[in-house]
Amino acid sequence: MRRRKAKKIAILPDPKFNDVVVTKFVNNLMFSGKKSLAFKIFYDAIEIVNKKNEEQEGLDIWRKALENVTPAVEVRSRRVGGATFQIPTPVREDRKSSLAMKWLIGYARKRNEKTMSQKLASEIIAAAKEEGAAYKKKEDTMRMAEANKAFSHFRF
After folding, report:
1. Mean of the pLDDT values across residues 16-41?
2. Mean pLDDT across the chain, nearest whole number?
3. Are 32 and 41 in contact (CB under 8 A)?
4. Which regions of 5-151 does DSSP assign to beta strands (E)?
5. Domains, the chain, ranges and CATH?
6. Tens of pLDDT, residues 60-107
7. What contacts 24+ positions apart, CB below 8 Å, involve 131-134?
8. 69, exposed or middle or buried, with CB in 10 Å at 0-12, 13-18, 19+?
9. Secondary structure of 31-53 in the HEC alphabet?
10. In this structure, how many other beta carbons lie within 10 angstroms of the beta carbon of residue 131?
11. 115, 156, 113, 153: which is closest to 132 by C-alpha?
């Protein structure tokens, strides 16, 4: 157990959109401390989304994509007796957004476009339309929780 609860570090909003969630997303996107490069990739991806979809703002599409990928429940393994059960548990608010960002970025990296900005833009557009690998991951998680609903009384 921890001695004290970990302190939450205040995150500054990003320079262009003045949004804290964007900064959190960029922090997840960043490799080897190269934050300016991560910001460039994100802003380029939003520009690509803007060009492909004229009727809506790129940042709004990104927010919708994040919302579509955000899970409500997840399964956690728990040993009861000699067996291991997958127990569905509701996801905490901060973990919800963290999982959504990690899934969106992770599946964007696995795509086959040329640059990371293009990969991220395509994954954002797909998630906003409720398709794509990140959205599928959320659906699979929900399905798994639904299938193991019988074990929810083992919740810890």
Report:
1. 95
2. 92
3. no
4. 73-80, 83-90
5. 43-78+85-154 (1.10.455.10)
6. 999 999 999 999 999 988 888 888 888 899 999 999 999 999 999 999
7. 132/107, 133/107, 134/65, 134/69, 134/100, 134/103, 134/104, 134/106, 134/107, 134/108
8. buried
9. CCCCHHHHHHHHHHHHHHHHHHC
10. 12
11. 113
**Per-residue confidence band for 39, with pLDDT thresholds at 50, 70 and 90:** very high
- For residue 34 the two structure tokens come to 């190269």
Average pLDDT over residues 45-66: 93
Integer distance in angstroms from the first to the last C-alpha of the chain?
16
* 153: amino acid identity, one letter: H
Residues with Cβ within 8 Å of 16's Cβ and at least 6 positions away in sequence, in order, are 22, 43
Give the number of other CB atoms < 10 A from CB of residue 78: 15
Amino acid symbol at 114: K
Token pair recorded at residue 53: 């979809």
Q: Show the tokens assigned to 119.
A: 């990969």
Would you tell me how many other CB atoms lie within 10 Å of the CB of residue 135?
A: 21
Q: What is the largest CA-CA distance in the chain?
A: 57
**For 112, how many CA atoms within 13 A lie in the half-sphere containing its CB?**
1
